Every structure is written in structure tokens, then in C-alpha cells.
Amino acid sequence: MWGNMVDCNMCGSAGTKPLFRVKGFDLVQCVRCDLAYVSNPPDPEGLRKLYSAGESDYHSELHDPDSAASRRMAAIAARHLTFTRRFVTEGRLVDVGCSSGEFLLLAQKAGFDCSGIEFSEESAIEARRRTGLTVERGTLHDTTIEAGSCDVLTLFDVIEHVPDPLADLARAFELLAPGGWLVLSTPNIDGLFPRASRPLANRLDYWPHPEPPHHLFQFSQTTLSRMVGQAGFSVEGVRHCNIDLAYTFGTPATLARMPKRLAYAALFAPLAKLGPMLNMGDWLYMAARKPKAN
């Protein structure tokens, strides 16, 4: 279920260079502004199916609090909260793409007035059940939240999934009060591991950093900062991290059964671990602020 070929979301250019092809999807890079994106994304129905628990073992597993995926997400939620509280510690917070609600639970305990928005219907139901909070099913563009009424909007590992990230950032700007905070995270295509492994991607038909078609965009700190600024925000802080090594490369048990993948992990996992120390992590956080009213 592929959609039509698309131009660059940030600058509108149709000029691209190929980066990686997998499952029939083409990850390309804009020759004008360097934004990386899937040039032949799924159509809306295809995207809906990707985030249905019936189609995704990952989303189904998140609904089991004892699963490895759920425990991993709880640990990541704690990291999200730590970064968020570097910039803002109170107010009305809306978690966009709240999944099954792990971050909402922690943010509420920390004193924020919380609600969520979730694209997956099954995950939205689970988040409501787990948190008891208001969780709308849909996107930023479907929400009933009033413009200018939010103090904090969080988009953790969301911006890479949406078909029109610039429009989502513009909508976030509209929903935030003057002086409000946008806090987001996303994989970093310019991280040490992605950069070092990219030359082998097409040769090996394997590049675990991007995840087409789930990830429709791949940002760097530069391209994300530029797009956030284009939407009207001022970038106030960035933190480089690495994606959990077991998630990227596989668990030890899995690697033990797959010698080629074990060799790949042995070559590149040290670079993934080293990346954040050089401000080249394969995952980054960004905090940006809407200007205060004059």
C-alpha cells in the first residue's frame, strides 16, 4: 500500500540521492537541505495498519506490563522525564504518541497536569485503562485541545513516523501557550553508528538504524533544528544518547544463533556506545520553546 512519490517536506525540492532500499521502500536524502525521508511512503490505510496492534507484535507486547518491550519502555519513559524536567517542571503537558501511557504515569507523579494523544486505537485504549487520564485517539490535527492552552507538548519518537512533520510542528506551535515547551526525541541519522554502517547498508541489504516504512523520516541534529526553527521555535537544548543495543542489534540469545549478525554487532555496537560521548549518538533529544508574548 504505497502512496505517491513525495518531495522534500522541509524545502519542497524534488532532487534526491538514494540512501537505502528495503521492502520496496526508498530512503533518500534531499540534495538541497539534507533531510532524509521515504520517497514512496505507504498510503493512509497502509499507515493505519502499521500501527494496529493486530498487525504489530511490538504494539501488542506493550500492552503486557511484564513483557520485555513494556519494561524497556518504562525505563525509556524515565529518561524522557529526566530530560523534560531540565527545562520545565510544571504545567499542562500533552504527550503526543503516548503509546500505552508509561511516560504519562511518570509525568503525572512528577506534578504535571497530563493528557495524551495516540494514533493506535488499541494503544489509546490501553493508555486510558492504565493511567485513568484523557487520551485522545488520533493525531495533533484531530485533537480537540484549544490553541494556546498547553505548557508542554512532548513527541517522543513520533516525528519520524508522521507523513508531514513540518505541519505537525506548526500545529504544536499553535497549541502551545507563549513560552511553552516542545520536547521531542528521534533517531539521529548522523550518529556515529549510522554514519559508519551506512556504506555497507545496500551491500548487505541490512541497516538496522532506519526502519522504513515505520520511520518515514530520518533526522540529524541539523535538519531537526532547521525544521523546528522553521515552525517558529527556538532550540534551547539537545542531548545525544544511544538506542538500546539489544533493540538495535539483537539480544545475546538472538545473536548467538546468527553468526553474521553477531559479527555485525561486534563491529558496530562499540561505535553506537561511543557516539553520545562525541555528540554523535544515534538517538537525540531536543527541547525547543515558543517565544513568549511581548
UniProtKB/TrEMBL annotation:
Q: Give the matching InterPro entries.
A: SAM-dependent_MTases_sf (IPR029063)
TM ranges: none
- Residues annotated as signal peptide: none
Q: PANTHER family under this entry?
A: METHYLTRANSFERASE TYPE 11, TRANS-ACONITATE 2-METHYLTRANSFERASE-RELATED
Name it. Methyltransferase type 12
Q: What is the lineage of its organism?
A: Bacteria, Pseudomonadati, Pseudomonadota, Alphaproteobacteria, Sphingomonadales
